TrEMBL record:
<dbReference type="GO" id="GO:0003677">
    <property type="term" value="F:DNA binding"/>
</dbReference>
<protein>
    <submittedName>
        <fullName>Transposase</fullName>
    </submittedName>
</protein>
<feature type="domain" description="Transposase IS4-like">
    <location>
        <begin position="109"/>
        <end position="277"/>
    </location>
</feature>
<dbReference type="GO" id="GO:0004803">
    <property type="term" value="F:transposase activity"/>
</dbReference>
<dbReference type="GO" id="GO:0006313">
    <property type="term" value="P:DNA transposition"/>
</dbReference>
<dbReference type="Pfam" id="PF01609">
    <property type="entry name" value="DDE_Tnp_1"/>
</dbReference>
<dbReference type="InterPro" id="IPR002559">
    <property type="entry name" value="Transposase_11"/>
</dbReference>
């Protein structure tokens, strides 16, 4: 670990809209399920599903949060129809992301786990918000030292920035509670897992060790042996996930304006797909 050399990628989606349409058309031919491609009156639609997918990724690329404003710019579909068609693509988007995971070489040296908040209203409305009642709640954002109402996204990321998987929970759920589930769903071949102080705890370390993974977390400054244990190279690698999360925010992962659960998940999937597509284009182009 004394000579760690990691290749990082910028994850900015540098592709023209024309090329993006070609990519989405290729994905659609490969991964769209039969019941989706042969649904009733599909031959009569003027805007194809692959074009809708390309438009969704382009919206994430341009950073336009409002879907209504985005529809006004392109003027191809009404906002309500575009919103409905985009929600129908959720299964396809998920399938594409899973297939990309199979084709990308994921045998890196480290995995990084962390979470980021997704507030659905301003902090002043935390106790009055009615949206997602029963699904969202109030959590604490340590970086800005504020409470927020919404969700928390727990993600597992390669050391070069590729996002393997994620899970969405209420904002109050502790980071360590979702670690085992993420590892079980992903089954990565990497042995080392890096986390922050939120993942400290003997029980979690032992659970992961039984699964064949070694979890490393920095000690707090007041803990015994912290100076010796806190490897600055590992801490620097772990902090790269924060750069990844800031880019996900650019793709509207954190500023999710959806007002339904399926819409929320669809926009989150699009943000991660756009992010991973940028990774693949830069690495394999």
């Amino acid at each position: 670990m004394n000579c760690l050399k990691l290749k990082r990628f910028s994850h900015h989606l540098q592709v023209s809209f024309k090329d993006l349409v070609i990519i989405c058309r290729h994905w659609y031919r490969l991964y769209a399920p039969a019941e989706f491609t042969h649904r009733r009156n599909i031959d009569q639609i003027k805007t194809t599903d692959s074009l809708i997918l390309a438009l969704l990724i382009w919206q994430a690329k341009t950073g336009i949060e409002s879907q209504r404003r985005f529809c006004e710019c392109f003027n191809c579909l009404s906002h309500s129809r575009f919103n409905r068609r985009s929600r129908q693509l959720l299964q396809l988007i998920y399938q594409i992301r899973q297939e990309m995971n199979k084709k990308v070489d994921l045998n890196g040296q480290f995995l990084i786990i962390d979470s980021f908040p997704v507030p659905v209203c301003q902090p002043i409305r935390n106790y009055r918000a009615k949206i997602f009642r029963g699904y969202a709640n109030i959590g604490y954002k340590a970086t800005k030292k504020i409470y927020f109402y919404g969700f928390k996204v727990h993600a597992i990321v390669r050391d070069d920035g590729y996002i393997l998987d994620y899970v969405v929970t209420k904002a109050s759920v502790h980071d360590a509670r979702e670690t085992v589930e993420l590892m079980e769903n992903t089954h990565p071949s990497n042995y080392y897992l890096l986390g922050d102080e939120g993942y400290l705890g003997k029980e979690l370390h032992q659970q992961l060790k039984r699964m064949g993974y070694e979890l490393w977390t920095p000690y707090r400054k007041n803990m015994t042996g912290a100076k010796k244990h806190n490897d600055h190279q590992l801490m620097a690698i772990r902090r790269t996930i924060e750069s990844d999360f800031s880019l996900l925010t650019y793709y509207n992962a954190e500023n999710n304006r959806a007002r339904s659960l399926i819409g929320f998940q669809s926009r989150l999937e699009i943000a991660i797909l756009a992010y991973n597509l940028a990774y693949c284009l830069e690495r394999f182009n």
